[in-house]
Fold Glyoxalase-like domain protein.
Amino acid sequence: MLTPFHLAIQVRDIAEARDFYGTKLGFSEGRSDTCWVDYDMFGHQLVVHLNPEIGATGKVVNYCNPVDSHAVPVPHFGVVLQVDQWKQLAERARTFVDTFIIEPYVRFEGQPGEQHTMFFEDPSGNALEFKAFADIQSQLFAK
């Protein structure tokens, strides 16, 4: 069993983050205060922290690197899921994501490390990737 990770990110607005992570993505809320909220992100602890320096219209700025003919934003974060979980999340994301950074698709198809992946941003510009493998144990670090 994997040990859950803890990740803290900055957001421009707590109410907006609650809507995105809690309502839209469906992550359960844990502890919170006026300037931070804990979420259960598939068994991992994601904490959103208010950064008023971002401002109401500002966003976190990401850099991109090419991977499988797509511009992958750096930094980004997410979770590796089972394929069925990923497909359910992809369907859900299509109901509220206006523009995907990378539309849901199969990357490295037919190669070692073949994976389902999708990228999109939260309202503060934090890039998220959700991916899935047919066999996580053998494919996650396949060369």
Remarks:
- The domain at 1-53 is CATH 3.10.180.10 (2,3-Dihydroxybiphenyl 1,2-Dioxygenase; domain 1).
